[in-house]
Write a structure and sequence with these properties.
homodimer; seven-stranded mixed β-sheet; alpha/beta; 289 residues
C-alpha cells in the first residue's frame, strides 16, 4: 500500500523489473534469465487485484533480450521501464482528452476513491477528463465520495482537486445515492483495478453500489482506464480473487478505535461491477462500449 | 443529538411536555394553557425529521385537561408521559415478536445505523426482531453498516449486539452491496425517522442506497417502526425537509481532520427511500405492506 492505484502499480512494477535486472551480478545470461524469472514471479505476487501489475511485468520481461549480453539486457530493462511509464502517462492524457468530451459545461460529476495523478504516473484516469474539462473552462463541480475505509476520496482526490482549483464537495459514501436521487449528479466517472473481457469492473469497494444507484437514477456511469488494466485472460469478474484486508481499517479511523473492543469487522478491498451497469469505458483509444 | 433515535426522541418529548407542566408557577388555567402551548411549540422545533417528536407532543397535549385545576393537569402530564414511554417500549416489544417470524434460522441480517434499545425506550425497532430471533435460539449473523458520518452502527449497534452475544461483523457502508451481491445477506431490517402515508421512509443517510441494492439483489428489505413514526399528514417523502448537518462530521473523524484544510463537504443527515423498495413495515400491529 506504499504504491496505490492500478497505473502507478504498473509503472512501479516496470521499474521493479529494471531494478531486479540492475541488481544481477555476473555475465552468465542463463543465470540472468533465471534471476529475472524469479524476480518477475516475486513482483507478480506484490498485489493480487490491479491488472496493470501483471501487464507491466509481461511487457518488460517480453522486451528484455535473452541472447545478448547481460550489460545490454540491463540497459534495455531501464530504457523499457521508462518507456512503460511514459506510455502510461500518455494513455492517461488521452483518457482526459476523450473523456472530457462527455462532460458538458455545468455538469456535476461524482467520483469514487482516488483515480487521479496520485494513482497513476500523471493526469489520473477518472480525474483526467475532469482536469481537461476544467482546462477547457467548463464550469464543473465534483462530488467526491470519501471512500471508507481508507478515505482516499477525502484525502487524495480532494487534495488533487484543490491543487487544480476545481470546485468539489466531499460526501460520505452513504450520501451518493441521495444526491443522485435529487438530480444533483449528472454523471459518474471512476477508475478500475481490473477489467475483464466481458467488461466486468473490479475497483475499490463501493464502486458496485454507486454503479447500481447511477443506473437506478438514469445517470451515465463511466469507467476510465488505460488498456493495461484490461485482463485478456479473465472473462467474468467473479473469477477475480478479492483481497480481504485487515479489520483494523474498519474498526479504527486515523489510529483511533471507533468500535467496541470486542467487535469484529469484514473488510473486502474491492468489488465487482458487472458490465451492465457501465455506460462506457474511457481508454486511450476513445470511449468504448 | 443528545437524544437520538425516533422513539427515544418521542419519549423524551413526552417527558419534556410533563417537565414544562411541572415548571409552571401559578394556578391560572388560562395562563397554564398559554405556557403549555409555547412549551409544545418549542419542543416541536427541537428536531425536524423524527415524526415521533410531533406524535408525542400531540399525544401529551391532547391528554392534559384544560378545565380542571393546574395541580391536576400537572399530575396527569407526568402520568401520561410515563404511559407514553411504556406504550413505546411495548410497541417495540411487539415489533420484535412480529418481526422475529420473518427471520429464519441461519439468516444473515443487514442493518443500518442504530435502531436498537439505545434509540428507543427499550428493545429497539430494527434490532428488536433480531433480539427475539436470538432469544428463540435461532442462529443468526448481523452485518452492521458502520454508518458514516457518525458511526452509530460501529459504535452503538455493535455494542448492543455484544451485550446480547449476537454474532456480527461491522462493515463499511461501501461493502453492503458487495455482501448482498455475493449472496451473504438474507434480509435487511432498518428503522425509520418518519414514514409518509404513501409509505416513503425517511431514515438515516444511506438507507436509500441499501434499499436499492437489496431490491437489485432480490433481498427483502423491511422497515421496523412503531405507529408513532407514521406521519398521517404527509403523503410523499419528497415533502419532508432533510436536515443538512455540519460539514465537520464528514471532514473530521473522532476529532481528527481527515480532509485537506481547504476542503468542503455536504452532509445530509437523512434520505428518502420510496415505498417501492420496501418489502414491508414491521409495526406493533404486525407486518404491514
Amino acid at each position: 500500500m506504499i504504491v496505490r492505484g492500478a497505473p502507478a502499480i504498473g509503472a512501479s512494477a516496470a521499474f521493479a523489473v529494471a531494478q531486479a535486472a540492475a541488481e544481477f551480478r555476473g555475465k552468465d545470461m542463463r543465470k540472468f534469465g533465471l534471476h529475472m524469472k524469479d524476480a518477475c514471479d516475486l513482483i507478480r505476487k506484490a498485489r493480487p487485484t490491479a491488472y496493470d501489475l501483471f501487464h507491466a511485468v509481461d511487457f518488460l520481461s517480453g522486451r528484455i533480450p535473452s541472447s545478448d549480453s547481460v550489460a545490454e539486457a540491463k540497459k534495455i530493462a531501464v530504457k523499457e521501464s521508462m518507456a512503460y511509464a511514459d506510455r502510461s502517462a500518455e494513455a492517461c492524457r488521452k483518457i482526459g482528452e476523450f473523456g472530457e468530451k462527455l462532460i458538458r459545461d455545468g455538469f456535476s460529476v461524482l467520483t469514487h476513491c482516488n483515480a487521479g495523478a496520485l494513482a497513476c504516473v500523471d493526469y489520473g484516469t477518472a480525474l483526467s477528463p475532469i482536469r481537461f474539462a476544467h482546462y477547457d473552462k467548463k464550469k464543473i463541480h465534483v462530488f467526491v465520495d470519501e471512500t471508507r475505509p481508507r478515505l482516499q476520496g477525502a484525502k487524495l482526490t480532494s487534495w488533487e482537486l484543490i491543487q487544480e482549483g476545481i470546485g468539489h464537495s466531499i460526501i460520505v459514501d452513504n450520501a451518493a445515492g441521495y444526491f443522485m436521487q435529487k438530480g444533483e449528479v449528472d454523471m459518474c466517472i471512476v477508475g478500475a483495478d481490473r477489467i475483464t473481457t466481458k467488461g466486468d469492473v473490479i475497483n475499490k469497494i463501493g464502486t458496485y453500489e454507486k454503479a447500481v444507484l447511477a443506473k437506478e437514477n438514469g445517470i451515465p456511469f463511466y469507467v476510465a482506464a488505460p488498456r493495461s488494466t484490461f485482463d485478456s485472460a479473465t472473462r467474468n469478474g467473479a473469477e477475480v480473487a478479492i483481497e480481504e484486508r485487515s479489520e483494523d481499517e474498519v474498526l479504527c479511523v486515523g489510529g483511533v478505535r471507533v468500535a467496541p473492543i470486542d467487535a469484529h469487522a469484514r473488510n473486502p478491498g474491492f468489488d465487482v461491477t458487472p458490465k451492465r451497469y457501465v455506460s462506457g469505458f474511457i481508454t486511450e483509444r476513445g470511449v468504448e462500449k
